[in-house]
Amino acid sequence: MTAPALPLIEKPAMRVIDLKLWYGSSLALDSISLDLPERRITAFIGPSGCGKSTLLRCLNRMNDLVDGVRTEGSVLFGGRSIFDPEVDVNALRKRIGMVFQKSNPFPKTVYENVAYGPRIHGVRAKGELDGIVERGLRAAALWDEVKDRLHESALQLSGGQQQRLCIARALAVEPEVLLLDEPCSALDPVATAKIEELLLELREHYTIAIVTHNMQQAARVSDYTAFLYLGRLIEFGETRELFVKPREQQTQDYITGRFG
Amino acid sequence: MAAGTAPRRADASGAARLPDTARRRIATERLASVAIRAGGLAVILAITGIFAFLVVEILPVLLPARVALAHDAALAGVVPRALLLDEYRTHDAALGRDGVVRVVRLEDGAVRAEQALADDFVAVAGDAEHSVLAGVARDGRIAAAPVAFTASFEEQRRVVTPSIGAPIELALFDDAAAAPAVAGPLAVRAGGDAQAGAAALAGGGVALVQRRSERNAFTGETTESLERRVLATPAPVTALALDPKQEQLYAGTADGRLLRFDLRAGVAEPESVDAGGAAISALSLLIGGRTLVVGQADGALSSWFTVPQENGPARLTRTRDYPSYPGAVRAIAPSQRDRAFLVAADDGTLGFQYSTSGRTLWRGDSPLGPATALALAPKGDGGAIAAEGRLASLDVRASHPELSLGSLFGKVWYEGAPRPEYVWQSSSGDDAFEPKLSLVPLVVGTLKGTFYALLLAVPLGVLGAMYTSQFMHARLQRWVKPGVEIMAALPSVVLGFLAALWLAPRVERLFSAFLAMGVAIPVAAIAGGWLWSRLPKRWVARVPDGTEVLWIGVAIAAAMALCVSLSAPLERALFGGSFPAWLETSTGLPFDQRNAVVVGIAMGFAVIPIIFAISEDAFSNVPADLSAGSLALGANRWQTVVRVVLPTASPGIFSAIMVGFGRAVGETMIVLMATGNTPILDWSPFNGFRTLSANIAVEIPEAPHGGTLYRTLFLAALLLFAMTFAVNTAAELVRHRLRRRYGRL
Fold first, then answer.
1. Is B634 an 8 Å CB contact of chain A?
2. Across the interface, which of B474, B628, B743 has its CB nearest the CB of A155?
3. Is B742 on the interface with A (CB under 8 A)?
4. CB contact set of B211 (below 8 Å; sequence gap of 6+)
């Protein structure tokens, strides 16, 4: 079975072309091709172990950190393959931010968490940092909740706040693409709703890819959805279309809850 | 009823029929919890037990001294002015101005021996060292009676039989008839081959007689020499003392001056020092004959000895003052075992003092009122005191009088030293030796060894752990970590042996190379890494990841080789060929082959595996999603490690350093073998030192059980225990605070 044709008409921010990935000798991603449209939210869904997180982590080369990973194919970003050996992976990751499944604020203050990225990229001036921190926190809809405790430990925030802090931290380096790996899986419904609301706002400025386990969430927030199963891209298309009348039987079975 | 009981039975049988696995699980869980609790309690008990044992061994030091009346006997009509006691404290020998020596059994007051030496003495004196009582008559004739106490056993009971030997006669003047009047006081030393007597003259001055007999070892002939002198004094003499070698005569005057006559120099001017106004009322030399205890009419009591001067001859110097007595000091009785002495004052106060520690061990009322004579028993465990018509024996007990906070931790002015200082020198071949038990040089030595060891081990251990856990390739990591941990299993005796016999001579020979390596190795490592990063990516891609370690290893080895080969020309150019010689001549610092640098390297190697293993764990335990979060922001590996991983791992690294500190403080074998064990107080890296732990190991085999040295060594052990305990507790507190701050682990 080959990947379906790309149905997209919008301008892609990133293009995944015939991507294969092996963990050691086992094939984890099999010939994936899809586009992430600019300033749209693309959701990756699929049962556990289908490769959706692996695919996401390919997009900013976080898989480099895993021992024994080998890739084939390419991911184009700004017209260039990100796997090119001449690519500065740190500069790449600055442009493609990531938020993880488990919120991982640094054991520092709220302020220092957000200022961390700009600092390592060379911003030193206090005034400039203050502005970046405030903008990041506002963009992550966290400013009002933490503006009086900027210099307290980030670990004292609630789980939902910590995850939004991680989003603020990612936004502070002004990325073009934001990758979210099941950002709400550890959160309660209220916190989840806030993040989802936030994502819809962020769509105005960022290209977003989100891995989610929660099909309702994909349906609620995403513009496009990719359904992966056993390392293969089964179906990719506009979210409403994919959920209302999927083309593939497997997609149909998954979204109606016959397996998962 | 049936309906009511049925479910109950079902419950009961349900509980009884728990599945086997569940029951086993519960049993295992209980067993585990009991075992863990027992283990924890056993550890706490063991540590408490060690602590309690140390405290129990040290406790006797704190026992108060005691002087109490043992026996009391009447001696009607006699005023004893000189006393002797036997070793078993059964008899007192007493001599008064009536010229009769009486030996009294203390149990019942019976006079066991009696001998008249003269009709009338103007002054009497005792020589406890030779067990002699002596008196001088007005015409200068001295008669000294040796008193012997023989112990024999009859039916398992010890019987002491006193006897008075033939009197030794000495005359201060040739012609007794024409002699000037003698007034006293008197000082006598009556050994077998040398006797001396000195007495003050009524008209001023001191008359001295010395008789020596020398036996020629080849011919067997004995030659006798007799010398008489009259020494002029600036004021009437009120107290006299002769040293045991009969080389120094000390005199105290009515106007409060101390005179020292050097008898070896013929008749010369005495050294004269002002003791401060009041007349000298009693003089006595402590064991060894170097410390002079001076009592004065105003109750002042002080210790004096000759102190070497930088230019000119040694001077008699007041080195210690004791609390004053309410009345004039009448008698001073030194111990023949240590530097303790009994003091009696005119108002009836009795005191027990110790010279080295300056302690007043005991002070109270004399059981007989104002004393006329005083003596300490040969073993120092008893005393005798006399008053008009009465004689009493005393029980004297002092546990470890030479120990005080001041003598253990403060500067002490030891006999013959130019100034007060911190010294550890616990024993010597001589009985009259003054033990010097300052723990300060040992504590400083311990800290010095620890400092130099940590200077090497902390950077190497922590940075090595950082590299291994954060940068090294996983395949290599699997070898390196256990490899370093195996280093911890290296017996410290092997390290000590290598340090002392292999490393120390090389460090001495190649000292400048070792100095240069301190700079060259880090520089080579950094330069090697930089070169590696500049290599074309194509080349780097061809070798497996992690190979850069080998490359850097080669760079370091090359740097070391360069240092060694440049060492000789370098030393020639900078240090005139030999660093140790240059150091000694140009800075005056001595260079020991076994020095702190060698110990630092050897002990550093013992400590590195501990610091490495614990900090490696701390680094590895930093959650991977933290560094992933940092990397995802575009930070490079180095920024991630320094700004995120290191602060988060800091509590663990801190405890690694503290555990390493504890290991270095307690380490014994390496310092024992490689330091030279010289207990000197000096931070120089070119010198040896002695640590508390090595000191315990060196000296405990020679410390008599229950003795002062034994207790002091246990005190050192307690100090060591307290040091590590305090450091570990402080470390734990700091670690908790850090952990709260960098929570998450």
1. yes
2. B743
3. yes
4. B170, B194, B195, B196, B224, B225, B226, B227
Strand partners, A224: A42, A238
Its pTM stands at 0.84
Instruction: Give the type of residue at B395.
Output: D
User: What residues of chain A lie within 8 A of the CB of B633, using their CB?
Assistant: 93-94, 97, 116-117, 120, 169-170, 173
Is B625 close to A100, i.e. CB distance below 8 A? yes
pLDDT at residue B10 in the model: 46
Task: List domains and CATH numbers for chain A.
Answer: 12-255 (3.40.50.300)
Q: Please state, rounded to an integer, the average pLDDT across all residues of chain B.
A: 88
User: Inter-chain contact A120–B639, Cβ cutoff 8 Å?
Assistant: yes
The residue of chain A with its CA nearest to that of B541 is A85
Query: DSSP secondary-structure letter at B167?
Result: P
pLDDT at B41: 96
Contacts of A106 in chain B (CB under 8 A): 626, 629-630, 644, 648
Res A3: pLDDT: 43
- Does B741 reach chain A within 8 Å, measured CB to CB? yes
Q: What is the least distance, in Å, from the CA of A117 to any CA of chain B?
A: 6
What is the pLDDT at residue B737?
84
Smallest CA–CA distance, residue A114 to chain B, in Å, is 10
CB-CB under 8 Å, B634 with A93: yes
Q: Is the dihedral of CA A195, A201, A202, A203 positive or negative?
A: positive
Mode of pairing for the β-strands spanning A177-181 and A96-99: parallel
Q: How far apart are CA A96 and CA A80, in angstroms?
A: 14
Nearest in space to A56 (alpha carbons), one of A194, A208, A255, A220: A208
Alpha carbons B660 and B451: distance in angstroms, whole number: 11
User: Is the Cβ of B647 closer than 8 Å to some Cβ of chain A?
Assistant: yes
Does the beta carbon of B418 lie under 8 angstroms from any beta carbon of chain A?
no
Q: What is the mean pLDDT of residues B623-638?
A: 91
Q: Which of A79-83, B313-317, B441-445, B588-592 has the lowest mean pLDDT?
A: B588-592
Q: Which residues of B203-216 are buried (b: 16+ CB within 10 A; e: fewer)?
A: eebbbbbbbeeeee
B536 contacts in A (CB within 8 Å)?
A: none
Q: How far apart are CA B289 and CA B108, in angstroms?
A: 36
A224-251 pLDDT, tens digit per residue, is: 999 999 999 999 999 999 999 899 999 9
d(CA B506, CA B485): 27
B583 close to A (CB below 8 A): no
Asked if residue B30 has pLDDT above 90, the reply is: yes
User: By CA distance, what is B628's nearest residue in A?
Assistant: A62
Out of A98, A106, A173, the one facing B626 most closely (by C-beta) is A106
Residue B78's contacts (CB-CB under 8 Å, 6 or more residues apart) are: B94, B96, B98, B100, B102, B389
Residue with tokens 């140790």, as numbered in its chain: B580
CB-count exposure of residue A89 (10 Å: 0-12, 13-18, 19+)? middle
Give all domains of chain B, ordered by start, each with its CATH number. Answer: 440-682 (1.10.3720)
B12 or B558: which leads in pLDDT: B558
Shortest CA distance from B741: residue in chain A: A107
Set of chain B residues whose Cβ sits within 8 Å of the Cβ of A177: none
Beta pairing, strands B168-171 & B157-164: unpaired
Rounded to 10 degrees, the C-alpha dihedral A74/A78/A79/A82 comes to: -30
**Integer angstrom CA distances of residue B559 from A250, B457, B532, B534, B572:** 65, 20, 16, 20, 20
CB-CB neighbors (< 8 A) of B648 in chain A:
106-107
Match 């995120």 to its residue by tokens.
B644
